[in-house]
Amino acid sequence: MEDSRGRTVGAGYVNPASGILVRLLTRGSALPSPDWAKGQFQRALQRRKALMGDVEDLRLVHSEADGLPGLVVERIGGYAVVSPDTLGAERVLLPWLLEEIEAAAPRGVILRAVAPIRQREGLAPRLEMLRGEAPEGPVIAREGDIRYAVDLFGGQKTGHYFDQRENRALCRSLGEGRRVLDVFSYTGGFAIAAALGGAGSVTAIESSGEAAAALSGNAALNGVTVEVREENAFDLLRQLVRDGERYDLVVLDPPPFARGRDHLEAALRAYKEINLRAMRLLAPGGYLLTASCSHAVSLGEFLAVIEDAAGDAGVPLTRLAVRGPAPDHPIRVEVPESDYLHLLALQRD
Ligand code: SAH
Prior knowledge:
Blueprint (H helix, E strand, L loop, with lengths): L9 E5 L7 E6 L6 H19 L5 E5 L8 E6 L2 E6 L2 H18 L3 E6 L12 E7 L6 E5 L2 E5 L14 H10 L4 E5 L5 H8 L4 E5 L3 H13 L5 E3 L3 H10 L4 E6 L11 H17 L1 E11 L6 H15 L3 E7 L18 E7 L1
Parallel strand pairs: 5-6, 10-11, 10-13, 11-12, 13-14
Antiparallel strand pairs: 1-2, 3-4, 4-5, 6-7, 8-9, 14-16, 15-16
Bound molecules: S-adenosyl-L-homocysteine (SAH).
């Protein structure tokens, strides 16, 4: 690709059917090749090893942030789960990297290409084995000594959010002896971490029946007790406030309320609502771990919402930490949207 003055910018792949016509792979005169892709992959593995040590279950490739646009690769239970979101990632990067991926995950390579975003690239959903035999049931994702069962061949709702690994560890250390409420719990990432940290009680709220069932299974797998409430978090939070309930640790990890800037206003209102209610549920000295994973919501905007909610709730809070995703989800400095996950740790007076 050249700029308007005829200078070479770099080389990338093109999809005329996509809203993003070109995705750059290399800068200057260097050309992408299978060797170049292997180099990118190895660098992604090395930086994880440097920052995280020998972790078995993690995200190995995080798209643009690892210099492989459109391609996500996770390793779970010895299997690689490959998710190409773009035509170029599926047709070019994946074939170039299949051998490397197989070497990193010898039990098998699963193509799990079901993200709705593929439609914008003109791609149909695909779910198939590329190498090895399909797992017979759920496989186990480990986070330290915590085990989560993950159905790699399941329906829409499957997988594990590795990005919150370190924030779950924070939840675990804050949870000891506490009454914990984990809202938007999915398969229990935070709830089980808190229970293993010695929480006095753990209640999880999750509206999806499939996820709630997996959550109960994960609690049993880890030998802990979690009360699972399969309900709409907005309604239940309101009711818990009305009933005068109190918790010593509340976790809010909602789905991305803003998929794009055009949903920003509504998203900010939704963040404010759940945070305001969660703050009202805090016992004196109680902690709030509150997250946003909306690409369209900046840290500044999220902080402003929290300040606003605290003001309206009349709850005095100290901010203890501002955190992002674990190092297997690196952030590309020149792509602000890749800085999508923010988690604040707050404490009530
Ligand atoms: N905290 C989880 C990840 C949460 S993902 C972890 O650590 O793994 C967001 C979850 O919120 C999804 O499981 C989704 O089913 C659930 N959810 C979405 N809307 C909801 C609502 N209104 N009430 C309760 N749960 C909801």
